[in-house]
TrEMBL record:
BP GO annotations: galactose metabolic process
Origin species: Ostreococcus lucimarinus (strain CCE9901)
Name used for this protein in its record: Galactokinase
Domain GHMP kinase N-terminal: 131-215
Lineage start: Eukaryota, Viridiplantae, Chlorophyta, Mamiellophyceae, Mamiellales
Key word Repressor present: no
Stretches assigned to the Galactokinase N-terminal domain: 36-83
Amino acid sequence: MGTDDEVRVVSSLEEIYDAASLETHTRARYATVRDAFVKAYGREPDAFARSPGRVNLIGEHIDYEGYSVLPMAIGLDTIVAISVNASSGKIAVGNTNEKYTPKTFESSPEQDVDAASLHWTNYVMCGYKGVFDFLKESDKASPAPVGLDIIVDGTVPTGSGLSSSSALCCAVAVAVMHALGLNFTQGEIADFTCKCERYSGTQSGGMDQAISIMGEAGVAKLVDFNPISTNDVNLPEEAAFIIGNCLAVSNKAETAHERYNLRVVECRLAAIILGLKLGMNAEEASKIETLKEIEDFVGSMSAAKAAAEEHLHEGYYDAREIEELIGVEAFMDVFSSPASKLVLSHNEKGYKLLARTLHVYSEAGRVHLFAAACAMKVDPTELGVYMNGSHESCRALYECSCAELDELVDAFRAAGALGARLTGAGWGGCAVAIVAKDAVESVLKAVHESFYSSRIAAGLISADNMATTLFATLPSSGAAILKGV
Ligand code: ADP
Ligand code: NG1
Ligand code: MG
């Protein structure tokens, strides 16, 4: 499978899910989604689409800077049941979880996503609009919008760094594509879902959508950008990966102006300033989007890092200093989008440019060391060292960890993991640990005791939910369309 292949269409659940999960809950889950669909719309869905969450093994906050990342798809996923409803002419969206209230939209793909509302169906509209955006952008004939009935069911914990948002956005995009009788390649879908998820308010980098669409059972993927492509990474057979949720929720859209989008802006400002200091003229520098372009300009990662150390200062830059450095026009341009305007209007502390840049360059280096170590089948202990380095950089330089995540990472290491780090955007959510395969049970038990037992006792998490809170995971398959299941 690759970027030029289409999304798999399967006719049995066995082609996607393992026997154990089908037996315990997955078959029943599909029956529940079907029942919810029949109850809401009075007939069976035409098809299902599913797209998984992901765990990023290494390469945090560098996808939007143009650097490769190394995630794998996980078994937790989002299912979308769909049917065309020609008579309603509307997009009706429901959820099996009653916490998520239903909503009905007009079918015009031109409508805006109301990011400020933070309603969960924003991600549905993102996926819906993305299909039409792509048709328009690629000059393909666009079918007239029709009514669609949709029911969503997700098992990816939300706001926890396992990318429930992209699993939802991608599953909807694939379902809508199928319902409209369209067929795009995986590369095309990965590309447009990255862009359209930005309607939700975060300036998404593309990793989550790429792996949710293109993940494959048994392998992690080195994902490259501009253009999107993936290479299989065979993980060491003697190691396993455990995910733990630190239980601090981090809803990205809600906090984007002070966290995620602020980091995107900080990196862009650093790149423009570096471009100018390195001799670009104002026009050239203002077109720089990523720190990777600075590396390309100076010819090597070490030269880019040295330039950052020479030309950027520690601590915060305020808006006035940045305006003086890059000029009013470039300043206005960086802050022209609604998302960046929000960053500017909420920012009191200023912008930390050197620390963010050093994180990006060092993390990009660790991704390649990790991939090379996997290819050379070195001792997994080395992978643990890179993962620990990544966490430290996220914590100290990128400042995207939090006390609960640091505690969980420490708990993994104390339990015998070879390494551990936050995964996903951070500021809450999950950590991922690498452990020797024969130590999986003992690490799970020790972390359960050291991190979770007091939280279960305090009512922060119910023991019933531990299966999606602390679990070993294998690389799983990417998006699929299920017909006649
Ligand atoms: P993450 O992607 O790390 O899980 P985000 O903050 O990016 O966190 O996305 C979480 C949001 O995505 C939720 O608050 C909700 O709006 C939406 N979402 C994800 N999965 C579902 C689902 N199965 N049902 C309803 N909403 C969902
Ligand atoms: P999560 O934690 O899933 O929202 C986000 C971004 C990624 C990437 C990581 C940090 C979106 C949809 N996803 O992931 O592109 O930048 O943070 O590495 O915005
Ligand atoms: Mg997300």
